[in-house]
Amino acid sequence: MAKVFGSSLTRYILIELIGDLLYWPVWWYSRGLRKVAEFCWQSIAGKQRELGIAIWIKNIFVPMFGQYDWEGRLISFFARLVIICSRSVVWIFWSLLVSTVLVGWILLPFAIYYQLIEHFRTVFPLPWL
Fold first, then answer.
1. Is residue 79 in a domain?
2. Could you tell me the residue range of the domain that residue 62 belongs to?
3. Tens-digit pLDDT profile for residues 75-100
4. How crowded is residue 40: how many other Cβ atoms within 10 Å of its Cβ?
5. DSSP 128
6. pTM for the structure as a whole
7. DSSP letters for 8-68
8. Which of 8, 9, 51, 119 suits a disulfide with 87, CB 3.0-4.6 Å?
């Protein structure tokens, strides 16, 4: 019974754990990166829909509150222009923030590797590290 348990434990350690450690970088830059990129794209597109920038642009020349005189049209145009500009700034800021998440996902393994090397240099001062 102990031999069977030892054999399955050895198989688990060699195949599952070591296999997962070796597969991790492949997953990180293939499926994982695709999932993060899809999340970022959906987040940016969702924020654009939430802010309604396309609708504001589509209706920029439509007077607000049914005021069809020239003063109402002029005030409506500039009010919508200010709203479009402010919402565009919010959307651009959000896009940059979400893009930072994507770049962080790509660079995180390199940063971890660098920190591990720096830590081992201080703990074990070897000439080749």
1. yes
2. 26-123
3. 999 999 999 999 999 999 999 999 99
4. 19
5. T
6. 0.76
7. HHHHIIIIIIHHHHHHHHHHHHTHHHHHHHHHHHHHHHHHHHHHTHHHHHHTTTSPGGG--
8. 51
